[in-house]
Amino acid sequence: MCTNNVYQKNCIYNDLSSLGINLYSNWNIAKLPIDKSSINDDENNSIIDNYNNPVSDDFNVVAHRGYSEIAPENTIPAFIAAAENGFTSVECDIEWTKDNVPVILHDSTINRTARKKNGWIFFFKHKCSDYTFDELLEFDFGRWKGKEFKGTKIPSFTQLLDCCDEYNLNLYVEIKETDNFDKEKAQILAEEVRKARLEDKVTWISFNADYLKMMSKIMPDSRLGYLSKETPNEDTIEILDELKTRRNEVFLDVKASKMTEKASDKLDDAGYDFEAWTVDNSDVLEQMYDYDCTGITTNSLTEDTVERIIDLSD
Fold first, then answer.
1. Which residue ranges make up each domain of the chain?
2. Percent of the chain that is helix, strand, coil (3-state, to 5)
3. 298, exposed or middle or buried, with CB in 10 Å at 0-12, 13-18, 19+?
4. Minimal CA–CA distance to 174: which of 80, 87, 270, 275?
5. 120-178, pLDDT tens digit by residue?
6. What is the CA angle 269-270-272, rounded to 5?
7. For the chain, first and last CA: distance in Å?
8. Higher pLDDT, 239 or 32
9. All residues at 6 or more sequence positions from 187 whose CB lies less than 8 Å from its CB, including other chains
10. 108 touches 93 (CB < 8 A)
11. Which CATH architecture describes the domain 42-105+158-313?
12. Under 8 Å CB-to-CB from 258, ≥6 apart: which residues?
C-alpha cells in the first residue's frame, strides 16, 4: 500500500483505491488501468502505443479537466477516461494546499466537488489552502458526479504527471489567478515536471501573463498559452511577444465566442497560432477551423468526432 505523502509510480496500477478508481460494474466508460508488472516489455510498449490517436499533427483536441463529460472533473478517473476515449491531450487546474502541495482542483474552495465521508456537502466555504494534502484525502471528490465514483480522491500534481506518463497524454496546466503564486510555487511545478521527464509534454496556460513569464524563466523551452476572454488586439500580440524566449512556442488560448476572422488574420500576421475554449458543438468547431484555429479545449467532443467534422469541412 502506498503512503499519502510519497506517491510511487506503481501506485497508479497497484493501489486503485488511493486514486478513487472503483470496481463498479455499471461504470464501463473508462477501462481500469493495466497492471504492467504482469506483462512483458513488448506488451508494455504496445499498450502505450494504443494511447496515441492524434487528429493530426496540426490540430490539438484537449479534454477539459479530463473527460469531464463522463467522469468527475480533475480526477484520475477523468484523465484515464480521456485516454481510453482517444484523447491525446488533457487540461487541468492547479490549486495549493496548506502544506504547499500542488493539487488538481478548479475552484479555490472544495465545496462544489468534495463531499464528507458520509456523503454530506460542505455548507460553509472551505478553501483548499486551509487543508493539508493528507487532510484533503479524507474527502470524496467523485461522489458528486455519481455513485460509481464514490471514494475518488483529489490527485496531487505528481500523481497526474505519472498518469500522463503512463497513458502518453500531453498536459495543459492552468495556473489559476491567485494572490499567492510566487517563484517558490513556480519552482515546485517545474521540478515536478522535470522529475517526471515530461518537459516536452507539458504546456503552461494562464490568464496571468506574469505567471507565464515566471515559468518561462525557470523553463525557457516551455510551451506557453496565454488565456484570454477578449477578442485579440494589438495589446494581446504585445503580451505574446513578451512571453517569447527564442526557445519556446507561444500561442493564444482564447474564448471561442470572442474570436473573429479579422483577429485570426492579425494573429497570423504576427506569427502566432491560436486555440479556442470551450468548444462543445460542431458549428463552433467548424467556425474555429475556418479561422485557422490549431486546437480546441472541449468537455464533450472526442478526437474521433472532431476528425469527422474537420474531414467534412475540408
1. 42-105+158-313
2. 40, 15, 45
3. buried
4. 275
5. 999 999 999 999 999 999 999 999 999 999 999 999 999 999 999 999 999 999 999 98
6. 105
7. 52
8. 239
9. 218
10. no
11. Alpha-Beta Barrel (3.20)
12. 228, 229, 230, 231, 232
Q: Is 282 exposed, middle or buried (0-12, 13-18, 19+ CB in 10 A)?
A: middle
Residue 59's SS3 state is: strand
Q: Can you say whether the dihedral through the CA atoms of 120, 123, 129, 130 is positive or negative?
A: negative
Residue 286's region, left for phi above 0, alpha for psi from -120 to 50, else beta, is alpha
DSSP-derived secondary structure letter, 128: G
**115-120, long-range: CB within 8 Å, 24+ apart, which pairs?**
115/139, 115/140, 115/141, 115/143, 115/144, 116/140, 119/143
Query: Nine-digit cell at 271?
Result: 506569427
Spatial separation of the C-alpha atoms in residues 154 and 142, rounded to whole Å: 9
pLDDT at 222: 97
Prediction pTM value: 0.85
Q: Write the CA distances from 242 to 125, 176, 185, 237, integer angstroms.
A: 37, 20, 21, 9
Closest C-alpha among 255, 306, 240, 269 to residue 58: 306
SS3 track for 130-190: HCCHHHHCCCECCCCCCHHHCCCCCCEHHHHHHHHHHHCCEEEEEECCCCCCCHHHHHHHH
| Dist. CA 177–CA 161, nearest whole Å | 21
